[in-house]
Amino acid sequence: MNENRSPNIKPKQVKPYIVMRELLPVIALVIGFVLVTGALLNHSVKQHNAIAEQAAQHLARSSIMVLQNTLTKFVSEYAYWNDTAQNTIENFNEEWVKDYIEIWAIDGLEMDGVLAVGHGNRVIAHAQRNGTQTLSDPSLFPTGLTKLIDAARAQPQALGEVNPSISGFFKDDHGLYLASAAVIMWEDERGAALDQGVPGVLIFFKSMDGPVLRDIESQFLLKGLELKTDASPATMVQLPLKSVDGTVLGKLQWRVREAGTDMLRNLIVPMIVISVLMLCTVGYIIWRTFRAAKLVDNYHKWLESKTDELLQARNLAEAANRSKSQFLATMSHELRTPLNAIIGFSDIIRDPPTQNLGPERTKDYANDIYNSGQYLLTLINDILDMSKIESKRFELFEEIVPLDHLIGQCLKLVSRAADEKSIAMHWTETPISILCDTRAMKQILINLVTNAIKFSKPETLIRIDIDQGAEDFVIRIQDQGIGMTDEDLERALLPFGQVRDAHIRENQGTGLGLNISRALTELHGGKFTIASQYAKGTTVSIHLPNYRIVPPQSDSTVGVSDGGLSAGIQGSK
CB within 10 Å: which end of the chain, N or C, has fewer? Predict the structure, then answer.
């Protein structure tokens, strides 16, 4: 077979586009990362800018509210004063009105204007800081001011207490004003001071001019604050100023610091550095990949020729062993093989003069005899159990046992086999105890866990989970082994059935374990199910009825410590 093969095969080099095709996922990942990072940064910038705009909007509203509260407080206190009602409405006292309302409001309270009106909006008192007389004639009142006076009179009036004022903006030829109006009230039960049957109204107002805007700007950190009186809709950096009926008379406008944009500006240099490092890393990965691909390709063809030879040899071996494997599935061969081993090795040891045996070889032969006997005993026990089950003569001797204790004992018995393959065993701890035949339940668990260990790859995990449902609870054993196809699953559930011919050679067993486990589960009133995926693993589920769960009892009546388990066995809640 070797004569037809050249000993030195020079393979073709890997084409660059093949390597690039393999690197496409990495490149796509890098591009995706860059795009996602950019999108996240853009979103973050917009969010920060929006938050800054909302904060500035809140500050602007707060500034107007503070100014409005000041006006409201002053006008409410002055309107709810017997002297005001007496000297403005009841018996008009021009000197008192001038001193205590007009001059005091302008100089003492730092108002930009004061107005008191009676029936038909007759002007009782009037003063403005700029000295204009536009509000001395009711016919010249701005619409916003007239509506504010009407709204103040329409407010519900409680007797004997300060009544809330009402605020709003009005505009005339000289500017925009924030005003607060309140009905003039007696401090006793007389209520509103009436001028020809109409309540008198006192109005204080402040001009939204430069000094007020500068005060707001400094106190509330609103940069570039200015007043706009155009009719365009308000934006996020503008606060509409409305009359009492909701008409927009102007807008406060300011400059907002774009916090998100500033943050992005500060991140430009670090982002450039990171991008350069990332590009260098990707370039290095690509270079190393091309280099590794060339190295691998140097051996690829040579390995292919070797693989062809090995495949031919394997096919010949499989063909030679197929008939033997089928024969081993029968009962006669299962009995004959261990017996032949026992007889053969015993014969060698029995006649030492003709054999040059040392102590080590004698011990090996004795171990072989012992293992064959154990295998034969296991086979006979399995056959006897199957016989009892099929003839319905298998009796359950039930007792209460903690499920954790039962699982722990079983895992301890198989821990050595698991340790030899570095297989970790993990189970979910549970406080429940169950009513069962302890020997039968141990046999079920040991059969299933042994199968899981037998067909699992080294350094994998076997899980035992316990789930309780409405009608039953499930003990689920999951491995990461070779798995089974549908055809394999049907064969495994037959007596003496094992999965795939190649694995019968690797994993010794009678093929009765699953059948016995299923039968014992059904004897307990349960259900036995198997779910398997080829090359990924198998999950075996033992469904037992909930009536087998026993309420918690004291430690003296159920369960004892098993003295500790293997380091590879772990339980968790």
Answer: C
Retrieve residue 493's tokens: 């559930």
Coil vs helix vs strand at 477: strand
Rounded to whole angstroms, how far apart are CA atoms 429 and 357? 52
What single-letter DSSP state applies at residue 302? H
Close Cβ partners of 304 (under 8 Å, ≥ 6 residues apart): none
Q: Which two tokens stand for residue 475?
A: 């003990």
With tokens 């999965």, the residue in question is 499
DSSP conformational letter for 106: I
For residue 274, what is the DSSP state? H
Residue 569: name the closest of 463, 421, 430, 465 by CA.
463
Determine the length of the chain: 573
CB 148 within 8 Å of CB 242: no
Q: Where are the beta strands (DSSP E) in 344-446?
A: 398-402, 424-428, 433-437
Task: Look at residue 555 in the predicted model and tell me its pLDDT.
Answer: 46
Tell me the CB-side half-sphere exposure of residue 500, using CA atoms within 13 A. Answer: 13
Helical spans, DSSP H, in 80-130:
82-84, 94-97
CATH 3.30.450.20 domain span(s) along the chain? 51-257
Q: Which two tokens stand for residue 408?
A: 């722990």
- Rounded to whole angstroms, the Cα distance separating 294 from 278 reads 24
What is the chain's Cα-based Rg?
Answer: 48
In order of 553, 562, 563, the CA distances from 559 in angstroms are: 10, 9, 12
Angstrom distance (rounded) from CA 405 to CA 5: 61
Q: Where in the chain is the domain with CATH 3.30.565.10?
A: 395-499+510-550
Confidence at residue 301, expressed as pLDDT on a 0 to 100 scale: 75
Counting Cα atoms < 13 Å in the Cβ hemisphere of 147 gives 14
Provide DSSP, 13-25.
PPPHHHHHHHHHH
Domain topology for 51-257: Beta-Lactamase (3.30.450)
Distance CA 544, CA 520 (A): 11
Q: Are 295 and 40 in contact (CB under 8 A)?
A: no
CA distance 324 to 311: 20
Residues of the chain with pLDDT under 70: 1-20, 22, 231-236, 258-260, 262, 264, 316, 319-334, 352-357, 494-511, 553-573
Q: Label residues 251-282 b or e (16+ Cβ within 10 Å = b).
A: bbbbebebbbeeebeeeeeeeeeeeeeeeeeb
